[in-house]
Amino acid sequence: MINIVLPVDFGESTDRLIDGAVKFAKETNGTICLIHVAPADIGFAIGDMGFQYFPEVEQNEIKEELLQLNRLQQRILAENIDCEHLLKQGVAGDIILEYAREKNAGYIVMGSHGRSGIYDVFVGSLTKELTRRSQIPVLVIPIHQ
Fold first, then answer.
1. Which long-range contacts link 75-83 to residues 24+ away (Cβ below 8 Å)?
2. Which among 17, 47, 77, 137 has the fewest CB atoms less than 10 Å away?
3. What pLDDT, on a 0 to 100 scale, did the predictor assign at position 93?
């Protein structure tokens, strides 16, 4: 059985990404290891008094993201695919690669919107970053709208 690391961001393409990862896991007898990386600055805001930290905002956001991860895990388990999940805060690329190494992953499954050029200059692409940096194969699933 292989471990398949599946980073999710709860965006509108998450359902398509889950469908693709489930199909791949069934074909490879794999286990899905869901991971969501939350920004390290969730509870910070800029106001009249400069930067302020609101721990209750961070706690509520983390609680909601854990609920979303649990729902995705249940959806995957319902497809008879073993699944676990993890939520961490920090720099997404670094944390995903670290988690994939810890899980001795056979694959990292990522989505691609097919954007390039100026979009990558201003926004960047986590999928592009991971395909460059990862020693573990990255399976890219097209998730065009």
1. 75/18, 76/18, 76/21, 76/22, 76/25, 76/32, 76/34, 79/22, 79/26, 81/22, 81/25, 81/26, 81/30, 81/31, 81/32, 82/1, 82/31, 82/32, 83/31, 83/32, 83/33, 83/34
2. 47
3. 93
Write the pLDDT tens digit of every residue in 52-100: 555 666 677 888 999 999 999 999 999 999 999 999 988 999 999 999 9
Q: What are phi and psi of 8, to 5 degrees?
A: -130, 150
CA distance 65 to 38: 8
**CATH architecture of the region 3-142:** 3-Layer(aba) Sandwich (3.40)
For residues 93-121, average pLDDT: 80
Residue corresponding to tokens 């995903």:
96
- Work out the average pLDDT over 110-126: 57
What's this model's pTM, rounded to 2 decimal places? 0.83
For the chain, first and last CA: distance in Å?
32
Angle between helix axes 14-28 and 55-77 (nearest 10 degrees) is: 40
